[in-house]
Amino acid sequence: MTSGPVGDTDVRIEPMRPADIDRCVELEQALFPEDDPWPAAAFRSELSGPYNRYVVARDGSGRMVGYAGIALLGTLDHPEAEVHTIGVDPDCHRGGIGTRLLRALLAEAGQRGGPVFLEVRTDNTPAITLYEKHGFRVVGLRKNYYLPSGADAYTMLRPGPTGGDQPNEVLA
């Protein structure tokens, strides 16, 4: 079913469509079997969120090999963003796809400015390394964050373009 590793240059990043949800669910089950993989309803909800941006990575044949999403939060005067998910087909790991997806999310966040947050399993060394290469640093620990496995997560932060690293207060 898979066509083997995909090179970074063979990949295009484009907006996620509802037709991509079944493949996202398939990848979720392969990637996160111990941590309550997202069902189709979760992806539908995320896609319908007005402040969410989701993208997919497609190989040269058009097969979806990864997905990622970010929420653009706060106000225009005090923006911030939160990476919700990044997933890459296991057959394509270490091929630069995660980097391309993360860069697409950071470009979305960069249009507004502000800090970017995310959570990552403390034992996911490749992801932590990727995030650190893109300016994120660990700012907190969430015990038993992932369920049902009970795995811990780091909260990571990439400061906004002005260097501010505190979440912006949203005024009601």
TrEMBL record:
Transferase listed as a keyword: yes
An annotated Gene Ontology molecular function: protein-N-terminal amino-acid acetyltransferase activity
EC number annotated for this UniProt entry: 2.3.1.255
CDD domains listed in its UniProt record: NAT_SF
Alphabetical list of InterPro entries matching this protein: AcTrfase_RimI/Ard1, Acyl_CoA_acyltransferase, Bact_Acetyltransf, GNAT_dom
Keyword Acyltransferase belongs to the record: yes
Keywords: Acyltransferase, Transferase
Enzyme class: transferase
Pfam family, one: Acetyltransf_1
Recorded coiled-coil stretches: none
Sequence ranges assigned to domain N-acetyltransferase in this UniProt record: 11-161
NCBIfam families: rimI (TIGR01575)
Protein name: N-alpha-acetyltransferase RimI
Organism: Nocardia aurantia
Gene from which this protein is expressed: rimI
